[in-house]
Structure formats: C-alpha cells, structure tokens
Amino acid sequence: MKNVLTLIILIPLNIAVAFAQTGASTNKLSFMIGEWKGNGWMMTQNGKQFTSIVEKVDCKLDCEIFAVAGIGTKTDSATMKSEVVHDAFGIIAYDKAKGKFTLRAYKKDNITETELEIISEKMIRWNLAIPNNGGTMRFTTDFSEPNKWKGTGEYSRDGTNWIKMMETRLEKTK
Fold first, then answer.
1. For residue 110, which of 84, 87, 126 has the smallest C-alpha distance?
2. 149 close to 171: Cβ distance less than 8 angstroms
C-alpha cells in the first residue's frame, strides 16, 4: 500500500515536471522574450521617418504562445511633442496541425494572420500580402547577436525583387 501511495504522489509530480520542461527552455523562439528598446526608420511618402521603438515580448501559457507589443514614436520638430507612429500587438503560437508558428498581428482596425518562418536558429521571417494585388511586405528579424534585435522590412511587387522600406535596431533592456 505504501508503494501505491508513493506512485500516486510521484506520477503526477513527474508529469508536472515534464510539462514544465516544455516551456521557455525548449521553445524555439524563447530568445525573443524581454523588453527591447532602440531606433528605426521607415520610408514614407515624405521620405525616411526616424522613430524610437519599444518592443515587449512575453511568454504566456508556459511559453506556448508569445505576446508581442510594439510602440514607435517620433518627435515633431515644430512642436517637440512625441507622436505615436507605430502601435501594434501580435500573438505568436505554434500551430500543431500545420507544424508551423503563426503570427496574428493587430494594428488599428486591421488583423492579419501569417506563418512565421524560422530562417536560422535566431532569425525569423514573415510576409504580409498587400490587398488588391499590391505586392508583399517581407519582415526579417535577426537576434543572432547577443541582446540585439535587428529588423528589416522589404517590399516586392513581384516576390522576386525586394526594396528595403524599414529597419530597426534594438537592444535588450530586461
């Protein structure tokens, strides 16, 4: 009877330990977790627009999903007031049925879902189709340098020739 009680206690404990080990330490994207700050630029109709950027990546549900929140601001040179020019939120999750990570991005009255491609151990990429056959935006984020986030956004009308439209350089602060 004593052995049965020991098994009843140990089996759930072992199951809990096994589930706990599938979290951040084994998730292929755990390197993203943290708070990131830095600068970037993007092309607009008026030329390059420079911004200050903060990105925060949290893991949820034992790192089965990631919540990504980004804010970009610029300072108006005439008024010296800070203005939000980028405000986005995303959920990254592993879709077991597809065997791939998906990104669901939210930005002011716009929701987009796309697959997240792992290019290398610490580099990810995703594409966003522009409606009405307007081409594709491709975003690549490189974390291969310790505590650095280097993002590049490129545009292509044909999916072959790409033009750099934006860049971010962030450092991990937490």
1. 87
2. yes
Per-residue pLDDT of the chain (174 residues; tens, 9 = 90+): 444 433 344 333 333 333 333 444 447 899 999 999 999 999 988 889 999 999 999 999 888 899 999 999 998 878 888 889 889 999 999 988 888 999 999 988 888 899 999 999 999 999 988 888 889 999 999 999 999 999 999 999 998 999 999 999 999 999
Q: Could you tell me which CATH class the domain 2-172 is placed in?
A: mainly beta
DSSP string for residues in the chain: -HHHHHHHHHHHHHHHHHHHTTSTTT-TTGGG-EEEEEEEEEEETTEEEEEEEEEEEEEETTTTEEEEEEEEEEE-TTT--EEEEEEEEEEEEEETTTTEEEEEEEETTEEEEEEEEEEETTEEEEEEEPTTT--EEEEEEE--STTEEEEEEEEESSSSS-EEEEEEEEEE--
Query: Model pTM?
Result: 0.78
For the chain, the structural domain boundaries read: 2-172
